[in-house]
Amino acid sequence: MVVGLPKRWSLVGFVIAFLLLTPLLALLTLATLPDGEVFAHLTNTVLPSYIANTAKLMLAVVLLSLLFAVPAAWLVARCDLPGRRFFQWALLLPLAMPGYVVAYIYTDLLDYPGPVQRFVRSLLGATSPADYWFPDIRSLGGAALMLALVLFPYIFLLGRTAFMEQSLSLLQASRIMGASERQSFWRLSLPMARPAIAAGVALVAMETAADFATVSYFAVPTLTTAVYDTWLGYGSLASASKLSVIILLAVFLLIYLERFARRKQELFQRQALTGQIPLLSLGRWRWPAFGFCLLLLLASFILPLGILLDYAIRYFGASWNSEFFQFSWNSFYLSALSAALCVLLALALLYVGRISPRRIDSWPARLASSGYALPGTVLAIGVLGPLTWLDFAINDLADWLGREGPGLIFSGSVAALLFAFCVRFAAIAIGGIENSWRRLSPSLDMAALTMGKGPLSMFFLVHLPLLRTGILAALLLVFIEAMKELPAALLLRPIGFENLATHVFQYVSDERLEQGALAAIVIVLVGLVPLILLNRSLELKAPDSPVSDSPVSDSPVSDSPVSDSPVSVNPMSPKER
Amino acid sequence: MKLSKGILFAGLACIAGTSVAAEQLTIYSYRQAFLIEPILAEFTKETGIKTQVVFAKDGIAERLQREGRLSKADLVLTSDFSKLMELVDKNLVAKVDSPVLESNIPAQLRSEGDDWYALTVRTRSLYSSKERLGKLDIDYEDLAKPEYKGKICTRSGKHPYNISLVASMIAHKGEAETRTWLEGLKANLARVPQGNDRAQVKAVKEGLCDIAIGNSYYFGAMMQDPEQKSWAEAVYINFPNQKNRGTHINVSGMALPKHAPNRDQAVKLMEFLSSDKAQQAYAEVNMEYPVKADVKPSAIVASWGEFKADSLPIGKLAENHAAAVKLLDEVKFDL
Lengths: 577, 335
Known about the structure:
The structure holds two protein chains of two kinds. By secondary structure, chain A is mainly α. Chain A has 23 helices and no strands. Chain A has two domains: 11-36 and 315-542 and 554-577, MetI-like (MetI-like fold); 46-105 and 138-310, MetI-like (MetI-like fold, Orthogonal Bundle), CATH 1.10.3720. Chain A is 71% helix and 0% strand. Chain A is globular. By secondary structure, chain B is α/β, with parallel strands linked by helices. Chain B has two domains: 2-121 and 250-299, D-Maltodextrin-Binding Protein, domain 2 (3-Layer(aba) Sandwich), CATH 3.40.190; 122-248 and 309-330, Periplasmic binding protein-like II (D-Maltodextrin-Binding Protein, domain 2, 3-Layer(aba) Sandwich). Chain B contains 14 helices and ten strands. In chain B, strands 1, 2, 3, 4, 5, 6, 7, 8, 9 and 10 form a ten-stranded mixed β-sheet that branches. The longest helix of chain B has 18 residues, at 2-19. Chain B starts with a helix and ends in a 5-residue tail after the last helix. Chain A: Residues 51-258, 328-534 form the ABC transmembrane type-1 domain.
């Protein structure tokens, strides 16, 4: 791997990383600017409530997600649950549902005029809301439930894998030592799965901290909605940046926790021997357990999707029009471009890191990955500053040359969105492709170089063909995340530009999702694709599948590239925010 | 990689396509495009000048500020008075000295410094349930009375429409009394402030509350919407404070951005918007009260009856705007 790498190559890596970091740097700079006492006013009045709401929401979403995900994960991994194989993948599907869409649908069902409360009223003979008690769905608790319904699969996924990969010999030992099934679950299985579950918890908490659409729809004031209001309502960019820094601190703390949890998990998995673990018989609990999983699936996916389909069919005439195609096209080309750019950047960064003998050259890829920590609302603030500066620099230059300037070609066009998506999603491409690249043995590089190939021809002739599957998967993942990303699109789009996500959210906030249901379904369906891929890659690795026990080390090149689809290594892929 | 190159080129073509502006007026609008498009079509027919409306719910002032001298905006239309003030405060508008505007728009509905001009007037009305309350002779102050506990619905207190109402209250009653009033009002809310003005009327229809705070033109708009007609039919529109200072009014308006590329045509459009024809259209299409004295409101709006409007100068609202926001935060109105 040691190549006499020209200095300018490593410079390229650092320049790319710097560009992708500019929003973060801009944000930190903005946060230090004076803000005319707006922030002091917020601190004295509503900020404590915003922070408390954000914290309460995160806690509630995590607890509910654990309640949903851990039992389900254990059931599908270790018990003779009826429909076990089905639930193994089906309970991942809710990840494709945008939280605000689920929120809208449940509000329609559970709000005062909805069918559920109408039924309750007819039972009780009640005529006004004062006559009986019914939990208010549009509340912090309601928002927590909605977010948990679409986020619990993160914990489910990691927990399921951990339970499945637990060492047979350890469990057998515990049984031989006289521990009951129950004891070995509490004393062995659960503690061993804890790092994986903790990683899932960190992800869920992060997504919750970043959520904008659901809390905004439910009128639950949190830090993300405060950033939006402070920026556009009070018109104070500096205060909005200060609020953003508070969110970032929370998110970075969670990332650290996640990394920490996963490091332990990796250590554990190396020493474990996997094997076919006999399924635990649930006895008379079989059907209640089945009911639990089925109810979870119904509530989180089947019911919302069914209602969406119903809306879409009833309002098909109103929504199947040229606008729908325009918005779909906007979503499509924006996502496709973002995916292509992210992959190109990832390839450049990773290749420099791979062939350089200097450790420092692996930094750019790490640095460039930190953008995924920025919630969309926060990212938007960070992106506009540098791009506006660039626009003015270009126009000043044009003026100086005596030519007509091009106007706001970056901050005022979809280029701003494209840049934001690259900052956000480069990490997904880097994570995915890096995993594929690691599987290519260094001896390949040496052979290629010995045969007289330069670094560039080695890349195109040797690496690129072998990375094909990984690249495709990375393209797809970034594409889908870009389709779903809401707050950044909402804040950065050129005035008058709509894509599917902003279109659906607009209809949600106007209380008319019926007419945007078709677009919502497109987002959900596209979001299902990576889940199917993800599941396939996990199935191939699962201990009870025929192709198990593949060593984790630098495996031979002949190893099917399908099995290392990057989907499996990047659970950090952010959901819509 | 050929494919991604193709996509790249397609994308660049798209970017280029969106950034090349045709010869036309660009209007940044806080009001939904469909509300003004019929009027603009008429303008194009008369003058041959094309227009393009770009709608944004929030952040137009922030955008103008950021775009600076590179901004393409020729005119800003706002849905509310405070947005006009924000533009002036941030020094984003140019003065327009036009005899036509001065004769069409009464002095109290334009700024003294020619910074902005109002286009329409609307009341902040109270909608009452036909079934449970009937028509009301009520003051805004009454909303804080215990008899309305759990009966009132409103959108976010921090929405400009409500901020203006609170600012007018401060102007008339002072901060201390307004705070007590806000606390009482908050205690009377049927639910946490949420949704838009129409959603509040819908909530009355559904029986969640008995009184909704909302702008007058929504009543007309809902009457014309097949889906929302039943909401409007469930309520009466009331004009508060008729026995004393009159009902709080707000205005929509326009201002010329400082860096407008097509200034002369933009002024022409401003003058057109204050003309009989456009004012008539505002009255008929938007169900608002025209600012031009000799233009009559639409038949539907006229059927709601005459009312006395609060004569507080609009500048007074501006003075109390910041205090209103602060009070709303201090009583945690939305929390």
